Amino acid sequence: MAKSSVTIKDIAKEAGVSTTLVSFVMSNQVAGEPVYRVGEDTARRVMEVAERLQYKPNNTARALRSGKTLTIGVVVSDIANPFFAEIARDLEDQAYKYGYNVIFGSSDENPEKFGRVVDVLLNKGVDGLILVPCAGSEDAIRKVVGSGVDTVLLDREVPGLQVSSVVLDNREAARVITRKLLDRGARRIDMVSYSMNISNTRDREQGYLDAIKEAGPEFETHIERITHNSYDSIPSYFRSARERGVDAFMMATNTLALLVMSEIYKNGYHIPDDFKVACFDRNPLYDIYAPGIIFVRQPVDSFAARAMELIMARIRSGPGRKVPIEQIVLSPEISG
Amino acid sequence: MAKSSVTIKDIAKEAGVSTTLVSFVMSNQVAGEPVYRVGEDTARRVMEVAERLQYKPNNTARALRSGKTLTIGVVVSDIANPFFAEIARDLEDQAYKYGYNVIFGSSDENPEKFGRVVDVLLNKGVDGLILVPCAGSEDAIRKVVGSGVDTVLLDREVPGLQVSSVVLDNREAARVITRKLLDRGARRIDMVSYSMNISNTRDREQGYLDAIKEAGPEFETHIERITHNSYDSIPSYFRSARERGVDAFMMATNTLALLVMSEIYKNGYHIPDDFKVACFDRNPLYDIYAPGIIFVRQPVDSFAARAMELIMARIRSGPGRKVPIEQIVLSPEISG
DNA sequence: CATATATGTTAAATCGTTTTAGCAAGCGTG
DNA sequence: CACGCTTGCTAAAACGATTTAACATATATG
Q1: In whole angstroms, what is the distance from residue A148 CA to residue A162 CA?
Q2: Residue A140 · residue A301 · CB < 8 Å
Q3: Is some CB atom of chain B closer than 8 A to the CB atom of A269?
Q4: Helix/strand/coil for B301
Q5: Cβ(B295)–Cβ(B335) below 8 Å
Q6: Are residues A46 and A81 in the same domain?
Q7: Are residues B230 and B178 in the same domain?
Q8: What local confidence, expressed as pLDDT, does residue B75 receive?
Q9: Residue B44: helix, strand or coil by DSSP?
């Protein structure tokens, strides 16, 4: 631990005031409006001394006494996924605006790890949690929420739980891009999805089915469910899809999209001439990789901003009368 | 912050002993060998009570008094890169073995952000730092190391700095895979690299040059340096490479490999028939994407294990006589 | 002028733990 | 039996901040 060496006491002595006063000045500086009344010139003097001595408040001591760490914990499902990496970045920026920091954890879509990570974060003393649930994490989330920790769910919901959340309108988004594939001439669209039981995946499948149903009874549907992180089945799946006369794919995530598209290229086909493709999430590789692709651009910055607003509102409303639960559903933007 | 509510005091009262004793029992439990002498049955009783009351030590208070957080800070250059994502995971596991936790930050290859992130970590009170330097981060690292914080560099070195590090033998690895391309019949090999000034990138370029030089004067070299995160130049580069009769590519990272390979496929060519490809780092997409690819598999688990060993050794040797600086160079494994 | 109110400041308690210094009992030794 | 050494335990002082309660002084109010 870095020895901060210069403490509030040193400043007090140097400026000829009490430590209390120094503390007042410091916390007034951090928060917006002055809560404590401090003489203007005294405040200036204290701040000058603090500056000169390069005072850095000791967050640990602060946390111990005040019970607030000004840190919120974030658990995403896979930090290596560009979608979540971007969310992580944006959350960090948002938190900064409120004078907060963020600590991350990754569940790797594993409910046990999810629980462990949440425990570690709580033990480190975060003021609130922003969680991306994974399949099987319901109990852990219920427990945390039940114990009164301020929590907001992100990207995925857990039905039947009294907790705020920010998600995309996945069903509508899926419907729109599927519809778009049809408009561009696709006759036989497969959806490639995950077998994980996660709200957003299920919603996307529904949207796909909605669109095909609307199109008419002559259109067939097929949802291929891939097991997370075991992608060897893709080549054989692609072969079967081709044999069934599939001419377009709708993918539930950017990872799936890349996998299927690389399979398409590997077999010597082109996008969008041979196969049309639609999917969720942007990926930096699209730019150069698949110019003709249709994708749902999730408003990641809004995800982060809304989630942070919700958690801040909850944190700032004392333990007494809490701010009400809010479930925010964001509208998708479609590209391509 | 989660109210842990039940404290050492409660246990002391319940068990009829002093808080000191409870503290002794608790910390003996955590560390390996008993440092304090405590009666065996008393210890058992205290632990029973602690268990029954579901005591969770308050890390904040611990940190404040002891000056140790049992947390080490890690700054990688891009958490969204699978290579670093895996390193992050492995570091977490390693730390766990020592009873430590890990907090992450990402510099996004930006030296200002690097400095900010390091400051935040130090301010949170980490006991040590594991850093992946980025171009321009030298000053920040020098400052941190100079101020006595235990530090280990990972994946990239900063020449002329007294600090432990764990890196791959990048030059040798690059030489070997370039050689392998030649052995498989490549006559004109381009290297695609980053323009960033980073030790490992420079070393890889040297290895490439070494191999071509060894091959004989009739072989030409070309190093194409791409600016990080601006990949629009790749199509035009690929065109020019094709015109120059290039028949193989050696890429400095997995990201570059994917970009160039997708360009190859997009133009209707195949790997390895039309172009042979070698690169650094594994990527999950390779499996399905480029079976014929040659790549350097970096021993990520060893990176993590060695780095954690080094930082632990430094942390545990008190501020008095520090363990000596160690620069560990790991051997690459070649696949394909 | 007396009383109330606002303003500027501080002493001391507190957060939950670790750590220092030391006490008391038991035991072997010469 | 007196001495030192070990064993088992504790009181009290940190750690560095925040927060409570209160004390002056100045200003306003009736």
Answers
A1: 11
A2: no
A3: no
A4: helix
A5: yes
A6: no
A7: yes
A8: 97
A9: helix
Within 118-157 of B, beta carbons closer than 8 Å to A belong to 120, 122-127, 147, 149
> CATH code at B26?
1.10.260.40
Closest Cβ–Cβ partner in A3, A108, A265 for B265 = A265
Cα torsion at B161, B163, B169, B172 (round to 10°)? 20
The string of pLDDT tens digits covering residues A236-286 is: 999 999 999 999 999 999 989 988 988 888 888 888 899 999 999 987 777
Give ∠ CA B179-B184-B186 in degrees, rounded to 5. 75
Same domain, A280 and A220: yes
The domain total for chain B is 3
Measure the CA–CA gap between A331 and A298, rounded to whole angstroms.
8
The DSSP secondary structure of A28-60, one letter per residue, reads: HHHSSS--S---HHHHHHHHHHHHHTT----HH
Same domain, yes or no: A154 and A73: yes
Strands (DSSP E) found in chain B: 71-76, 101-106, 128-131, 151-154, 164-168, 189-194, 222-226, 248-251, 276-280, 294-297, 327-330, 333-335
pTM for the complete prediction?
0.89
The token duo for B93 is 């596991």
Nearest to A288 among B1, B231, B284 (CB): B231
DSSP A291: T
In this structure, the answer to whether residues B29 and B83 fall within a common structural domain is no
Which residues on B lie below 8 Å from A149 (Cβ)?
2
Q: CATH no. for residue A226? A: 3.40.50.2300
Q: Which of B56, B46, B53, B58 is nearest to B19 (CA)?
A: B46
Phi, psi of B34 (to 5 degrees): -70, 125
Domain boundary among B36, B57, B78: B57
Domain span including residue B280: 170-297
In a shared domain, residues A187 and A247: yes
| Same-domain status, B331 and B278 | no
pLDDT in tens, A60-107: 999 999 999 999 999 999 888 889 989 999 999 999 999 999 999 999
Based on the fold, state whether residues B130 and B177 are members of the same structural domain: no
CA A112-A118-A119 angle, 5° bins: 90
Six-digit token string for A77: 């499902």
**CB contact (8 A) between residue A79 and residue B82:** no
Q: Are B122 and B100 in contact (CB under 8 A)?
A: no
